[in-house]
Amino acid sequence: MSGTPVSAAPPGGGTRPVSATPVGSRSERPRAADPAGRFVRRDSAFREWVTDRPEPGRYHLYVCHACPWAHRTVIVRGLKRLEDVIAFTAVDPLRDERGWRFLPGDPDPLNGFRFLAEAYLATDPGFAGRVTVPVLWDVREGRIVNNESSEIIRMLNAWSDEGPDLYPEPLRAEIDAVNERVYHGVNNGVYRAGFAATQGAYEEAFDELFATLDWLDERLAGRRFLVGGPEPTEADWRLFVTLVRFDAVYVGHFKCNLRRIADYPALSAYVRDLYQQPGIAGTVDFDHIKRHYYMTHASLNPNEIVPKGPALDLLAPHGRERLG
Ligand SMILES: N[C@@H](CCC(=O)N[C@@H](CS)C(=O)NCC(=O)O)C(=O)O
I need a labelling partner for 78 at 20 to 30 A (CA). Which of 60, 135, 204, 265 fits? Predict the structure, then answer.
């Protein structure tokens, strides 16, 4: 892949230092919207599947700690004890007009990429879609295998018998059904509210979001995890990555402000329960999360001021052990 042209630079040269982006100038690529102003998420471009556990180092993950979709892959990698099989590199949480970038302090160890777009162009020189994280990168072949988090976490789960089975056969239908509702209402729902281009589209997303959170709060009042038990499954981790960002970002930045997660009795304890599971707290980086959202979407927050709060105590007792 060396020698692949790097066309992630802006027209006219790309001579401006990455760190010198003036306030308010981070341009956003326009997001797709339907005629009613609804945010439309595009399908991920690369969808190959690696079924068998690979030899260590064959694949690499490119992630961003701010991103909920990438966060899922970091969590599953840890839960499945795959640290020696697959390493990851995190991009800087701030994007400029050239997209996700690697900073000198955390460089790309494999290819020396400066921008994640280079990985996309190495895979498909004509790539003109969105450059997103996470990315599952084939080190040997020098190309992206898959950039869809829901599929990457299924692969990681299948690669290892260590840790819990996050997608056990008998629970698959129920996990799929819960995921479907959580994806539309919550995971993508916060983006549909935040990136809505009309009042109507925003309110539609907002109403579905809070109806889904009400449903989840009720469901979790009587059971510790979303499906099965006594351990969290994929369904819980997919929800967790959105819930843990909710009060810090989505309430304000995406205008999801009917209630905070802190106001939901079951959901607030549930998010603490998941946060306190071994190995999870270290995957949550509020500095990256807050800087990414508040400093990247210039149309939502042109002055890039990052709120100081809220005060969150995710280590407070959750009391959910009694639910089994
Ligand atoms: N469906 C994808 C979504 C990934 C995604 O949208 N990631 C965001 C970061 S949170 C991204 O990279 N956005 C860049 C862009 O859309 O230009 C997945 O689940 O992997």
Answer: 265
**Residue whose structure tokens are 């690499």:** 60
pLDDT in tens, 136-169: 999 999 999 999 999 999 999 999 999 999 999 9
User: pLDDT band at 26, cuts 50/70/90?
Assistant: low
Expressed in angstroms and rounded, the spacing between residue 132 Cα and the centre of ligand 1 is: 4
Cα of 69 to ligand 1 centre, how many Å?
Answer: 7
Q: Which atom of ligand 1 is nearest to the CA of 42?
A: 1
Per domain, the residue ranges of the chain are 169-284
| Residue from 118, 135, 163 nearest 1 by CA | 118
Tens digit of pLDDT for each residue in 285-306? 999 999 999 999 999 999 999 9
CATH code for the structural domain at 169-284: 1.20.1050.10
- β-partners of residue 61 are 88, 136
Residues 44 and 106: their CA atoms lie apart, in Å, by 26
- The Å distance, Cα 44 to ligand 1 centre, comes to 8
Provide the CA 241 distance to its chain's centre, in angstroms. 7
Instruction: Decide: 148 in ligand 1 pocket, CB within 6 A.
Output: yes
Q: Provide the 3-class DSSP secondary structure of residue 63.
A: strand
* Binding site membership of 69 for ligand 1 (Cβ less than 6 Å): yes
Residue of 40, 42, 133, 238 to mutate, ligand 1, most atoms within 8 A of C-beta: 133
To the nearest 10°, report the CA torsion of 289, 292, 294, 300: -120
Q: What is the pTM of this model?
A: 0.91
Q: Taking residues 72-91, report their average pLDDT.
A: 98
Query: Which residues are identified as catalytic?
Result: 67, 191
